[in-house]
Amino acid sequence: MSSRDRTALALVVWAVMLSQTLLYPGVDRLVAAMGFGSGNYLDASTWFLAAEFAAFALAAGVWGAASDTAERRIPFVAAGAVLGALGYGVLALLGPTEPAFWLVLVVRFLQGAATVGAFSLAMSMLADLGEGNGRNMGAAGIAIGIGTALGAPIGGQLYAIGPFVPLWTGAVLLTLVGAATLLVADRAPEGDHEGVREALGALRRTPSLAVPFAFGFADRMTAGFFALVGTVYFRTAFDLSPAETGITLALFFAPFGLLQYPFGRLSDRFGRTAPIVAGSAFYGVVVLGIGTAESTFPVRSDALLAVQFGMVAVGVLGALMAPATMALVVDLAPGDERGVALGGFNIAGSLGFLTGVVGGGLIADDFGYPAAFGFAGGAEILLALVAIPAFLRLQISREKMFS
C-alpha cells in the first residue's frame, strides 16, 4: 500500500512541476504575446516569474500549518490543484486581450498561492509514509526532476503551437492532480494543535531546521536563475529556439531528476553529510564556469558544448544534494509538524527561486550575463561556506532517518 501511495504522490508532485516548467523555455514570448516586454524580455519576464514564487514563499507555510491543524492532507492538496488549474486558465484567457500588467501579476500570484498547496502537501504526504525519509524524499526529488526535465523540452514544443498553449496544458495537468489525490490514503499524523499561528511556531521551536533551509534556498536560487536568466542567455548568446533552449535546460533537469531517488536511498544508508557537503562544494563553481564559457571559448559551438556539459554536471550535483537536504528536514522535524517543516523548506526554496529570478534578472539587465552568473555561483559558494559548519554540528541518528 505504501509503495502504491508513494507512486501516486510522486505523480502529483511530477504533474505540478511539469505544469510550472512548461512556461520557462519561452517565457519571454509569453509575456510579449500578452503585450509586455517591448524588446526587454528580462524585465517583464522577471516579474511574471517572481509573482508566482513570491506567492509560494508566503503561502507554503500557511498550507502546511492548516493541514497539520486539521490533521488532513488530501482536501488541501485537491483544493490547491483545482484552484491552481483555474489560475492557469484565467491567465490563458486574459493573455490575448493584452490586459494590464498588474492584473496579470495578481492572477499569477493567486495561481502560485494555490499551486504551492498541492505541491508542498504532496511532499508532506510522502513524508508521512515512513519506511525511510531518504527514500520518500528521493521519490519527491525524482518527481520534481523528471517533471522539470520534461517540462523544458515539451514547453518549447508547445510554444511552437502558440504562446498560450503551455498555460492551457498546465491547467489540464493540475485538474488531473486534483482527481489523483483520491487514490491515496490520508496518513496525516495526529497531534495537538491550537491553530494555524501556533502550528507555524513549530519553525521557531526547531531552530536546527535553518540548516537545510539555507541549503534549499541556495539550490533553488540557482534553479530560478536558470529558469529566467539561463533561458534568455541561451536564446540570445547562442541563438537557440525555444525548443532548443528547452533541450539545453533538460540537460540539467534530466540527471537532476533521474538520480535523485538512488541518491536519496544512498543518504539513508550513509547519512546526509557526504551528499550535501560534497555537492555544495562544487555546485557554485560549475555555475560560474557556465557563465564564463562564452568568453572562454572563441568558437560558439565549443562554448555551447561546454555549457551543455556544465548543465549536466550541475544536474548531477543537484541530484546528490536535493533528496538528502529534504530528508534532513524530515529527520529534524517532530512527526506531527512535518507539514509545517516542509512548508518552511518550500518557503526558503521559493525565496531562493525568487532571489535567483529577480536578482539574476536585474543584474543581467544592468551589468550583463557574466556578472549575473558570478552572482548566482558566488552566492551559492558563500552560502555553502556559511552553512556547512553548522550542518556538521548536527547529529542525525540512523533510527531518526527511518522514523
Automatic annotation (TrEMBL):
Signal peptide: none annotated. The chain crosses the membrane at residues 47-66, 73-94, 100-127, 139-161, 167-188, 209-234, 246-264, 276-293, 305-330, 342-363, 369-392. Gene3D superfamilies: MFS general substrate transporter like domains. GO terms for molecular function: chloride transmembrane transporter activity. PANTHER family: TRANSPORTER MFS SUPERFAMILY. This is Major Facilitator Superfamily protein. Keywords: Membrane, Transmembrane, Transmembrane helix. GO terms for cellular component: plasma membrane. SUPFAM superfamilies: MFS general substrate transporter (SSF103473). Residues 208-403 form the Major facilitator superfamily (MFS) profile domain. It comes from Halolamina pelagica.
